[in-house]
Amino acid sequence: MAEFSINRCLRLIRMHTMENWKVYLISLGLVALINLCFAVVSEDGSLFSRFYPLTMCLSGCLMASSVYRGWARFGRSALYLLLPASSLEKFIAILGYCTLIFIPVFTTIYFLTGYVFLSMYHPVSFFEMFSGGKNSVLNYQVFYSDSLLVYFLLLPLFLMSAARFRKYPFPATLLILLLLFITYNYCQLFLLTNFSGGLAFGHTFFIKYGDFDYYQFAGQKHFTRSIDLVFSLRIFNILAWTVIGLGLYLASFHSLKEREL
Amino acid sequence: MITLRDVKFGYSRKINLFEGLNLELPPGHIIGLLGKNGAGKTTLLKLMSGLAFPKSGVLSAGNFIPEKRQAGFLRDVFFLTEETWLPPVNPHTLVHLYAPFYPEFDEGGFFSLLKSFEVGKEQKLSDLSFGQRKKALIAFALSCNTRYLFFDEPTNGLDIPSKASFRSLLAGAFSEERTIIISTHQVRDLQHLIDWALVLDQGKVLVNDSLNAIAGYLSFGQSLSAPAPGDVIYSVNSELGYAYIKPNHFHDPGNVDIETLFNGLTEVPEKLLPLINRNNNG
């Protein structure tokens, strides 16, 4: 039975914050700097709103890649691994850090600095940016919930690589993801050209929560079609992604638990 | 008691550093872990602390299996590595952040140890020199009051007064329940502190015995001129003349010169080991 104490988790989070607050402050400063660039070129809040998911995912994954930084330094990693808390507590603390703390803090800083910088260059009201107008943040709600799901799926991958790789876990994971993406698309292309009688050549399929979307690229043209999945397939799809997600989190927990020096 | 039964370990799949390693280390001793470079000293400490996992065999520390890294075990172990790292905080914050994980932590003791090592209370620990960082970490390790205390080359980087302080502090930290293991090449620094010798060579245990027992069957001495061959098993030219080892036929009480013992074991193991093993077996 794995040991778990919420107090130890909170202590770990506090320790992590105290040890890394400068790095995180600098990172948030960089986010503010990017926002300043957006504010200069954007006339309304649309740039902030559109780039938020990408910036959030990238920053979150970058942070996840650096949570165990120091594997290459024996003294540091030994102190961390031998800290009297179970591997589960250490993992939950890191997970809490990358989600419950990171997402609200990042989002607040992102939009707050975005609004401040934007209002310096363009007359834009707080109401317009965050609730009303056509470029308001609220128009991107679905986009944001999609990106959160992507983040939650990517997070365990970056945590896993952070536990496994001694050096450069972030670029290594990006490279692995790129290779997986290319392989996935190559396999898809192979299957479609060989098993659909050539009809589906050039199609790219995406299975989302309930819909079965496909994009057809024909020359310069681009068509999107969305077909509703039957109920049982919807359930299967949701279950499959849930199992994949849970499997990834379990694998990243084991990467930390089985980490040797 | 730390027990190893048929432990096999290697950093690669094909080559094993330890194979069929059997060992029992009783509490209440300050154990000197000796061996040449690459003998497996640090690896053994890693295995015993749970930083590395045996490929097969059983390694236990009391009721715990270190490899499981249970919080209950980790509360009772501190491994001071040769390479020191401390977070970018001052000692007060260090205590605030790390001490709650160790239920037996002695905060007053920690600050008094820092004082005796002349490490400032307000200094940021990561900005300290290597030696100062090591002293701060030694102070922290001793204050954790853990049952198992492992040191890897603790005196490396310490100045002469600090080495003396370390010796007296460690002697003060000794208790019947504690197992203190010190891996070191600086045997002379700790000669009078160590009361148990664990000598490794190429992943094998050459000696695992108390110095009292070793002194019961080996006699160590110094002479200005080369000792007459006769009874002498091993002799070496030292700065004070000749250090030699003879069999202790009458089991007279005496001191063990750990450095000479180690040198003898590495140079003439075929002469010394049968004597030690015969006495151990019978």
State the main characteristics.
heterodimer; A: 261 residues; mainly alpha; three-stranded antiparallel sheet; 8% strand; globular; B: 282 residues; alpha/beta; Rossmann fold; 2 domains; six-stranded mixed sheet; 10 helices
Summarize the SSE layout with pairings.
The complex is a heterodimer of chains A (261) and B (282).
Chain A: H1 6-41, H2 46-66, H3 74-81, H4 87-121, H5 126-130, H6 141-164, H7 169-195, E1 203-207, E2 211-218, E3 221-228, H8 231-257
Antiparallel strand pairs in A: 1-2, 2-3
Chain B: E1 2-9, E2 18-25, E3 29-35, H1 41-49, E4 56-61, H2 71-74, E5 77-80, H3 91-98, H4 107-116, H5 130-143, E6 148-152, H6 160-173, E7 179-183, H7 187-190, E8 196-201, E9 204-210, H8 211-217, E10 218-223, E11 234-238, E12 241-247, H9 258-267, H10 269-281
Parallel strand pairs in B: 3-7, 3-8, 5-6, 6-7
Antiparallel strand pairs in B: 1-2, 1-4, 8-9, 10-12, 11-12
Helix pairs in contact in B: 4-5, 9-10
